[in-house]
Design brief:
two-stranded antiparallel ribbon; 12 strands; about 325 residues; alpha/beta; about 40% helix; 9 helices; TIM Barrel; disordered N terminus; 8-stranded parallel β-barrel
Length: about 325
């Protein structure tokens, strides 16, 4: 090592300051990015996993994909080979809506079989998990999102109140919610042995299905399985109208297996709103990023959105990961 220009402490600090200033000029760079201990890997949602579908994502800087294409295992294995050959990964399978609360046993069994197919496809794709929405309820009086004030039994998970004051007008909703909790739990428990065998996690998502609409209630439902192959698939944008996403992240903590990324812009009065592109809405992304790091989330996030160039989605994703 040369001793002609010794690097003393003063010179080191000065050089570091200059370097930091230079990097601060780079688009998407955050001086605070280094504070995060955990990484978020960026993905988009695709249908069939083909080279044609993945190539533009690869060129735009995405790490992998989530697929909606639930297919025979042989086809899924080919999709895995294509992705891995391109240096990418199929990280999740989006199964979506099921009818585990149906009063028709045939529909319940049909939903179970569809989920089994998704689990087998995910295994062949090399995916970590499937996204599963167990069921939905509706068609009866229920509180507005901003009026929910839920109390529930910590043993059964049954709700006893959904709003302040007289809950008699919400009796049908309370009954439907509690039935959905019981039937969903029974169905998922039937799927756990296969998930365990395949090493594929069941990621439960609630998507404006009027169920488990508060962080502590959803956390209790997912945690009640007490099983490492049942976790929460958390959609950051879907929960804005009920509570700030960072509150959901803190409540769910290590139960979060994967993330969906989109944004929601609340109306000026905070009541209602519309979905918008990431960073165009009401989400406090720095607070969400900080919360994710605090709970130790290190994994994948799929942008569930369209309408912008892929490079713009990547740029916005990078800013979110950097805590901006």
């Amino acid at each position: 090592m040369s001793t002609k220009h010794p690097l003393n402490r003063r010179r080191f600090l000065a050089a570091s300051a200059v370097a930091a200033s230079a990097f601060a000029l780079v688009p998407g760079f955050s001086a605070s990015a280094g504070q995060f201990k955990h990484r978020i890997r960026k993905a988009m949602i695709v249908g069939q996993v083909t080279e044609a579908a993945l190539k533009p994502l690869k060129e735009a800087g995405f790490d992998g994909v989530e697929t909606t294409h639930i297919c025979p295992e042989e086809e899924a294995a080919k999709g895995r080979a294509i992705a891995e050959g391109m240096g990418m990964r199929v990280h999740s399978v989006l199964r979506g809506w099921m009818e585990f609360n149906s009063e028709d046993p045939a529909k319940v069994e049909g939903s179970l079989e569809q989920t089994r197919k998704a689990l087998r496809a995910a295994h062949a794709y090399g995916a970590d998990d499937i996204l599963l929405v167990t069921c939905r309820v509706g068609g009866m009086p229920m509180p507005e999102p901003w009026d929910f004030d839920i109390d529930f039994d910590r043993g059964s998970g049954h709700i006893t109140r959904v709003a302040a004051g007289d809950n008699s007008r919400y009796a049908a909703y309370i009954k439907a919610q509690n039935r959905a909790t019981d039937t969903s739990r029974a169905a998922v428990e039937k799927l756990i042995p296969l998930a365990e065998e395949l090493k594929v996690i069941i990621g439960i998502e609630n998507v404006w299905n009027n169920l488990w609409v508060k962080p502590d209630l959803f956390q209790h439902f997912v945690a009640s399985f007490k099983h490492p192959f049942v976790k929460a698939y958390f959609d950051i944008g879907n929960h804005v109208k009920y509570a700030p996403p960072q509150d959901w992240v803190k409540a769910l903590g290590p139960l979060i297996v994967k993330l969906h990324v989109k944004d929601f812009k609340l109306n000026p009065d905070g009541h209602g709103g519309e979905f918008v592109h990431p960073r165009d809405g009401s989400i406090d992304w720095p607070a969400v990023r900080q919360a994710l790091d605090q709970v130790g989330y290190d994994g994948w996030a799929s942008i569930e959105d369209g309408g912008l160039p892929l490079t713009e989605f990547r740029r916005r994703f990078d800013l979110i990961e950097a805590g901006q």
